[in-house]
Amino acid sequence: MIHSTHRTAEGGTTVWLARHGEVHNPGNILYGRLPRIGLTPEGRRQAQALADFLKTRPLAAIYSSPMLRARKTAEVILRAHAELGRVRQDVNLTEVRTGWEGEPLADLERIDWDFYTHPRNPGDESLEAIRTRMERWLQTVLRRHAGGEVVGVSHGDPILILVGTLSGLPLEPRQIFPRPYIEPGVLYRMRFEQAGALRDLQLLIPHAQAAA
User: Fold this and answer.
1) Contact 166, 190 (CB under 8 A)
2) Per DSSP, what are the bridge partners of residue 62?
3) Domain total in the chain
4) pLDDT of 5 above 50
């Protein structure tokens, strides 16, 4: 449990939501939930930049998607917060489930990367389903770590769906996914009032700051 001296100055809760570092993808495919998708050297640098940025923060917990690339990113952050002991895996933070997984990126470009409007399998996740599980994670950490700070490491689309929802954007691909897309290793800071209302939201790019 986080001590009172580690609470945010305003008495609210701060949630840091990071996208994992750059991945090794020599086949140029939509890797999705495929196993053994690890980080490139640049991805490890991005993870270290996240860790360096967050090392002075009084974190109560570090959460991660079960995917390898997210876990590896979260483990780098954990090294700067060894007192936490472990990374907490949470399936709500995991990558999107889609039948386009494993397909060449060129095929995704032909549908403008919109596999929500062009699902391939009955079990493909909808935007609404992803929003529901990301909101479930958020409400859990707001309740469990009220007044403290937590980090979650997730994936591009789930992060943007949650951030877009909190920002009041309609749940529509052209509205919620920016062009250009967010980089690996970016970090969103979300600060909430004690009652749970969003106070402010900010996008940060620690690896760009570290290279400056």
Assistant:
1) yes
2) 151
3) 1
4) no
